[in-house]
Every structure is written in C-alpha cells, then in structure tokens.
Amino acid sequence: MSDQTTNGATQAADQATGPNFTVEKIYVKDVSFEVPGAPAIYSENIAPELNLNLNQRVQRLAENAFEVVLGVTLTCKAGDKTAYVAEVQQAGVFGLAGFDAQTIDALLGTQCPSILFPYVRQLLSELIQAGGFPPFFLQPINFDGLYAETLRQRSQQGQVGTIENDPPVGNV
C-alpha cells in the first residue's frame, strides 16, 4: 500500500470517528518538600506569607500524543525565614486526534491542566500536613483565564505560536 493510500485511509477513519480527546496516563513527575529551619521553625508565631508559582510545560510525544506537566511551587515564609518549600510536578499524557491546531492549543492550555489540577491540589495538601504544618488548600485556578492572557500576550508580541512552544507561566 502506498503512503498516500495509507494516509488517506487514516484521514478517512479520523473523519468518520470525529475528534478524540483521551487521558492516557496521569502521574507524579517530581515532588520535593523542604523544611530548612526545622525544628526551630515550628515554634515561630509569625503570620506566614505564602508565594505560589504555577507553570505548565507541554511536549509532543507523537503525532497525536502530548505530555502536559503542571508545576506548582509553594514557598511559605515566617518573617525572614523559610518555613517550607513544596514543589509538585503533576503530569499526564493526553491523546488529541482529529482537532485543528488552534483547538489542540486551547485543549492543552485549558482542559489538560484542569484535569491535572485536583491531583496537584491533593498532593500539595498532603505534603504540607506531613511536614507538620496546618492544612493548605489550593484555591481553584481559572485555566481558561490564564490561557486567554497567554493569547493576549502572544498577540501583543506579534507571536504566532502554540502552547507547545510558548506555554503559560505565571504567579498566582
């Protein structure tokens, strides 16, 4: 069978079944938790200051497969001392077939991180409690809004790109 026939058959099959979005695998890619001032930090009675950094990376694995990594770093300071630093990189492999490039970009920037977020939230909370600190519950994140901001920044910079080569990164 020639390449043209094979590709034509694949395209016809994709059109017959329509677009397909699948979650192939969800996994923890990296975790770190540090309490640099332990045990003295536990006796500090200073109101904590939290700094949350959120980032996302996308990597194409195959024609219709992408790895999306949602990273969260939470730094808690007590005065001038770092109480703890918690870092979680939650990843997933997603199948996206039958979509145009713009739709794939939007799905990678909104739906995929939204699927990963509850896993990040749970693991972050468990790490902080296991570290001897009061529970921390990460508030919901509007990934549609973050993606819209990324598109706005791209258009201001005159960039035409996709989430694959220009992922949204920000502080929340």
From TrEMBL:
Q: List the keywords (alphabetical).
A: Chaperone, Cytoplasm, Protein transport, Translocation, Transport
One GO MF term: unfolded protein binding
Which Gene3D superfamilies does the protein's record reference? SecB-like
What is this protein's name?
A: Protein-export protein SecB
Q: What does this protein do?
A: One of the proteins required for the normal export of preproteins out of the cell cytoplasm. It is a molecular chaperone that binds to a subset of precursor proteins, maintaining them in a translocation-competent state. It also specifically binds to its receptor SecA.
Superkingdom assignment = Bacteria
NCBIfam families from the UniProt entry: PRK05751.1-2, PRK05751.1-4, secB
Assembly information from the UniProt record: Homotetramer, a dimer of dimers. One homotetramer interacts with 1 SecA dimer.
